[in-house]
Design goal:
The protein is mainly beta. It has a single domain, classed as M1 Pyruvate Kinase, Domain 3 (Beta Barrel), CATH 2.40.33.20. Helices cover 12% and strands 35% of the residues. It contains three helices and eleven strands; from the N terminus they run βββββαβββααβββ. It starts with 11 loop residues before the first strand and ends with a strand. The N terminus is likely disordered.
C-alpha cells in the first residue's frame, strides 16, 4: 500500500506491529494486542502520561531508512511502540490518528538518539532526515488496538 501525503489528509493504512517497553531501556516486547488508556498511553509500557505516551514509525519511512543501511534492520531496533503502514507521519504535528477505535494526537517528531547507533552502527545518521525517526503521541481514548487494525487520519 502506498504511503500517502499527511498534509493532504488522505489515505488509510493498517497497524503492522505493537511493542511494549516494560521498563526504561528495557527490551521491546512484541504483542498482538494492547490496551490504550486516555491520557496515559499503552498499559504496561514504561512511558505513561505526558505528551510522549506512544511512539510510532511508518513502514514507508522505515523501509527508506533500511535501504540506507548495509544490512536489513529490524524495525524493533527503533524502539517505537507502533509500526503503521499506509500513513505518512511527516508534518503531522497536531493531527489525530485513528487506530481501530482509538485516537492518538501526534505531538511531534521523534528524533533518533545515540541508542540507534548502539543497535546498528550508522543508523542514527540515516534516520536524521525529517520525521525518519517517527512521531510521538498521546492517547485520547481508552480501548484495545490489535495487529491489522485500520489506521487513518481522523481530522
Amino acid at each position: 500500500m502506498a504511503e500517502t501525503n499527511a498534509a493532504a489528509g488522505t489515505g488509510a493504512g493498517r497497524l503492522e506491529q505493537v511493542w511494549i517497553k516494560r521498563f526504561r531501556r528495557g527490551p521491546m516486547d512484541p504483542v498482538r494486542q494492547a490496551e490504550l488508556r486516555a491520557g496515559q498511553g499503552l498499559v504496561g509500557n514504561a512511558d505513561q502520561g505526558g505528551k510522549r505516551q506512544v511512539t510510532l514509525i511508518s513502514r514507508g519511512e522505515w523501509d527508506r531508512v533500511s535501504e540506507g543501511m548495509a544490512d536489513d534492520v529490524d524495525p524493533a531496533v527503533r524502539r517505537a511502540n507502533l509500526l503503521v503502514s499506509g500513513i505518512r507521519l511527516e508534518g503531522a504535528r497536531g493531527r489525530i490518528l485513528r487506530i481501530g477505535s482509538c485516537r492518538l494526537r501526534i505531538n511531534g517528531e521523534t528524533r533518533p538518539c545515540e541508542r540507534m547507533d548502539e543497535a546498528a552502527p550508522g543508523l542514527r545518521s540515516v534516520m536524521r532526515p525529517a520525521w525518519a525517526g517517527g512521531a510521538y503521541a498521546e492517547s485520547l481514548d481508552d480501548g484495545t488496538i490489535t495487529l491489522g487494525d485500520p489506521v487513518s487520519w481522523d481530522d
